[in-house]
Amino acid sequence: MKSELPITLPVEKVIDEAEGVKSLIFRHKLDAKPGQFLMVWIPRVDLKPFGVSYLEEGSFGITVCKVGPTSEKLCRAKKGDLLGIMGPYGKPFTLEGRRIILVAGGYGAAPLFPLAEEAKKKGITTTFIIGAKSESYLIYRERAKKAGINTIITTDDGSCGRKCFTTDALEDALKAGGIDKVYSCGPEIMLKKVAELCRRHQVKCEVSMHRYMKCGFGVCGSCSVDDQGFPLCKKVVLTGEEALRIKEFGQHSRDASGTKQPFAR
Questions:
Q1: φ, ψ of residue 98 in degrees (nearest 5)
Q2: Can you tell me the mean pLDDT for 74-83?
Q3: Of 95, 120, 126, 201, which cross-links 174 as Cys (Cβ 3.0–4.6 Å)?
Q4: 32 vs 1, 124, 196, 220, 257, CA distance in Å?
Q5: Is 166 helix (H, G, I), strand (E, B) or coil?
């Protein structure tokens, strides 16, 4: 059941994932599907959205990258600390095909990992491309290894895996053929490239597109996109074609005041 008011839960476990990245695990049965997100309330701080990165029977988790005051506070959380959880919200991924590729940039791997686990359980051949600036920022390498998920690592500086972008590795796989569908989450510029590559190779894809959100369920309008006008939080997961119809896709985001902020290139 979706919780529209915060359920107060204690942190059960804290996992150090990478430099500035931690996962918080909660013992609670969450009725969520891969790709959905939660609104997490930090008392006296703020309410922020986070994708569900751990999803098991009787427990779930979120993965947090330290980028601002709220995420920094969450990264200091300890076992027993109380947080408010609302959701799950958004449209989940649609798992289909016999051979799929997951493309993650940085901590965009978070909402994709439960999808990789579900695909493995269903016998779907899965390749997980995980990229980061350098080795110290890579997440889930050991987790993927333990789960037996075929993983390709890319880093911008070549400190681990291939020295290239995730989209370079994806393009190689698409050229080889035999891919039924691609799923992606990460920097929006990367998502646009993924969607364009899939269109070029006539392969289905879904992208998890996250923007600034205040409510999580379509009331505040802070995540509405030009010129479609719909609040992104009501979907989050879009088909590649849906995303490419959004004029601002990969061009700019919006801050808390609604001001356009261009992406760094």
A1: -105, -15
A2: 96
A3: 201
A4: 9, 21, 29, 23, 30
A5: helix
Quick: pLDDT tens for 191-224: 999 999 999 999 999 999 987 777 787 777 777 7
pLDDT in tens, 88-131: 999 999 999 999 999 999 989 999 999 999 999 999 999 999 99
Widest CA span in the chain: 52
Residues 21, 16: Cα–Cα separation, whole Å: 7
| pLDDT grade for 139, boundaries at 50, 70 and 90 | very high
Sign of CA dihedral 142, 152, 138, 223: negative
Block residue for tokens 């190779």: 201
Average pLDDT on 144-161 reads 95
Q: What would the two tokens of residue 2 be?
A: 């979706």
The one-letter amino acid code at 16 reads D
Q: How many residues does the chain have?
A: 265
d(CA 73, CA 92): 28
Q: What residue ranges do the domains of the chain occupy?
A: 3-89, 99-262
Cβ atoms of residues 189 and 103 within 8 Å: no
What's the CA gap between 48 and 24, in Å, rounded? 14
The yes or no reply on domain 3-89 and CATH 2.40.30.10 is yes
What's the CATH code, domain 99-262?
3.40.50.80
